[in-house]
């Protein structure tokens, strides 16, 4: 399972917040927010690296696949490496911020365990936000699956034709064609004309149907062959719309 990246604006806003939060946190402790800002700016790449490695590599590849031993082991390695990098940051801070005078830095700046704790609070806070987003995405997928299941449970397309309700089995439909102000539903036996809009029919059709053109919806189970430009159903040839081509070809490759 792969966790998806969100938009760049969300990430930038989050890390700006982290930078400001840690600057205020350490700045008040040191009574020197300027020094704290530069110190946190030097520390931030470690926080970024640990956060993205943990959330986008360890969690999806080991935790979500229930490989808990390896997840714990690599998390421990991440902790060790991040602490080692923090020590390097401390040395740089000692040289550039402390002007070779360690007493000018607050004692908290030399507390590697404290820095590690703060770092992982940020990492796990990001992980928690990511988890909430994944839960929301999964709920959306579940809702879509339930809607799809409800369509499959009712194996008929209901339309008004010749002023009466007509039920057409999904399995009998070959394709649906939109013609100006009406729609023609082509089945194995005949064609049924309705005033329903093709976009309205698309909403109630199950996943086995695919919109390939603004004028055509096809039953993918009836396809005999296709190219990048056309779909064939025995002797019937239907064009793939330019704006639909990418999605159609991706969908047909999965069939």
Written overview of the protein:
The protein has 2 domains: 8-151, no CATH class; 156-254, Beta Barrel (OB fold (Dihydrolipoamide Acetyltransferase, E2P)), CATH 2.40.50. Helix content is 56%, strand content 19%. It has helices at 8-30, 33-63, 68-97, 112-153, 198-204, 245-254; strands at 156-161, 164-169, 173-179, 182-187, 191-194, 209-213, 216-219, 225-226, 230-233, 236-239. The strands form 3 sheets. It has a 5-stranded antiparallel β-sheet. A hairpin with a 3-residue loop joins strand 8 and strand 9. The chain is elongated. It starts with 7 loop residues before the first helix and ends with a helix. The model is unreliable at 1-5 (pLDDT under 50).
Summarize the structure.
This protein is of the alpha+beta class.
List keywords for this structure.
255 residues; alpha+beta; OB fold (Dihydrolipoamide Acetyltransferase, E2P); five-stranded antiparallel sheet; three-stranded antiparallel sheet; 10 strands
Question: H/E order of the elements?
Answer: HHHHEEEEEHEEEEEH
Please compute the radius of gyration using only Cα atoms: 29 Å
User: In total, how many beta strands?
Assistant: 10
- Spatial strand order of the main sheet: 5-4-3-7-6
Indicate the overall shape. elongated
Count of DSSP helices? 6
The portion of residues assigned to helices is: 55-70%
- Beta-strand content estimate: 15-25%
Total domain modules:
2
Biggest sheet, in brief?
5 strands, antiparallel
Mean pLDDT: 79
Low-confidence stretches: 1-5
Q: What distance separates the N and C termini?
A: 21 Å
